[in-house]
Amino acid sequence: MPRLNTNLHKPVSENGKVGNFIYSFKDYLSHLKMFSRNARLFLTGMFLVWINFQIFNVLFNLYLKEFGFNEGQIGLINSSRGVGMTLMAIPAAIILSRIRLKPILLVGCLLLAGFSFVMSTYVDFFIIVTFSILNGMMLAFYRVASGPFFMRNSTPKERTYLFSSSFAVLMLAGMTASAGSGEIVTLIGGAVGDIIEGYRYTLYIGITVSLFTLIPIMKIKASAPSQEEKRFSFAWSKFKERGRFYFKISFANFIVGLGAGLIIPFLNLYFKDRFNLSPDTIGWFFFCVTAAMFVGSLSGPILAKRLGLVRTVVYTELVSIPFLLILAYSYYLPLVFVAFVLRGGLMNLGAPIVNNVSMELSRKNEQGLVNALLMITWTASWMVATAVGGYMIEKFGYTFTMNITIVLYIISAVTYYGFFKKAEKKNENSPGWTIVREDAV
């Protein structure tokens, strides 16, 4: 006779997978319901900003290609945004530790829209590079603010879910942008008889959507930075004391950014050059890969509960490599499409977890600095790699460049595991893992 389940919070083991799935789904929803109002408003604002960001990611390279820019020039333009983010990361962390978040994000939203408008209107290499740098500087405030803001407006119980949901929201914005942007280009281009105007007015639509970010940001009731957070400083003594930790959280991030920057910004050109696909088809491809990234990011907390945060990052990064090999060597479009989607979902599953681990291991008065360092190492490596990647693709092709990316991904996964394998321990009496503070590692 089977035992009755007397614990209403656990699935009946005899029911097998169905009971486990129902329990996991209810458990996941219960954590999502814990999000604070401030966190929900911030996520909404990020969604609207990122629609514009993703429309640019999908279309801007193709737009520039129509004007005759080569891959090397496009690579420099893409990397210039990273220059702006890198230059502003530390100043943004200092500013955000001193004053309230809301006015900075409101002004940043307006400036982002203005800079994006100039980039879409004036097709001059110098102007585009200049305003791409300014665009990156404004994006830096959103990127640096997110980690400390989530730490301040959440509890340890739902925090991993909040970080993963923040990434999922960005992927949802990418799905929204990718699903319709290519179609809109074709529709407008056909109506006016000029594909370039189709690209330009679609970019304008993305800019308009981003302005609606002002509504949720205005409703945030964020407190001023605490006294402990105001003690943030960019002092050499702090780096001497905590330099080992800062190096560890930065190095693997820098290496994976190098690998990603070599090839990811050019995947839209990859499909155009290798398979001669149209803008609307490329847009749908990016919709599908962003959907996979969305599902992957939501799966992060479930995997992390079973494998641990660190192991989830490492395993998913390594499993994505065979799919990148398919992209490098295959000319069979259906296989390449599947590999493109699965690689994107796996590789990006660990991104919010990396931020979560770094914030958990940081002291409160250095969380802004740590978030800035993560952004600097990512954007600096991306900036350099994108500039080099455009040149390498132009001279040696996609296959050679993707092989370099694979080597860098392997180095990143191995070093991240070596640095942080002892940074968490498995709970003996309950599911999940517990972070060990860096001071105690």
Structural summary, described in words:
With 441 residues, the protein is mostly helical. The chain has a single domain, classed as Growth Hormone, Chain: A (Up-down Bundle). It is 80% helix and 1% strand. It contains 18 helices and two strands.
Brief write-up:
The chain is an all-alpha fold and 441 residues long. The protein has helices at 17-32, 37-66, 71-96, 101-121, 125-152, 156-192, 195-211, 214-219, 227-230, 236-263, 267-275, 279-307, 309-319, 321-329, 333-349, 351-361, 367-396, 398-420, and strands spanning 424-426, 433-435. It has one domain (34-440): Growth Hormone, Chain: A (Up-down Bundle).
Q: What is the topology?
A:
Elements: H1 17-32, H2 37-66, H3 71-96, H4 101-121, H5 125-152, H6 156-192, H7 195-211, H8 214-219, H9 227-230, H10 236-263, H11 267-275, H12 279-307, H13 309-319, H14 321-329, H15 333-349, H16 351-361, H17 367-396, H18 398-420, E1 424-426, E2 433-435
Antiparallel strand pairs: 1-2
Largest sheet: 2 strands, antiparallel
- Report helical residue fraction: over 70%
- DSSP, total strands: 2
CATH class: Mainly Alpha
- Derived from helix and strand composition plus strand pairing, the structural class reads mainly alpha
Question: What amount of the residues lies in strands?
Answer: under 5%
Distance between the termini: 48 Å
- What is the H/E order? HHHHHHHHHHHHHHHHHHEE
Please give the count of helices. 18
- The CATH topology, please? Growth Hormone, Chain: A
Number of domains: 1
Return Rg in Å.
Answer: 22 Å
Low-confidence stretches: 1-14
Q: How are strands sequenced across the largest beta sheet?
A: 1-2
Q: Look at the structure and give the mean pLDDT.
A: 82
Instruction: Give the overall silhouette.
Output: globular
CATH architecture: Up-down Bundle
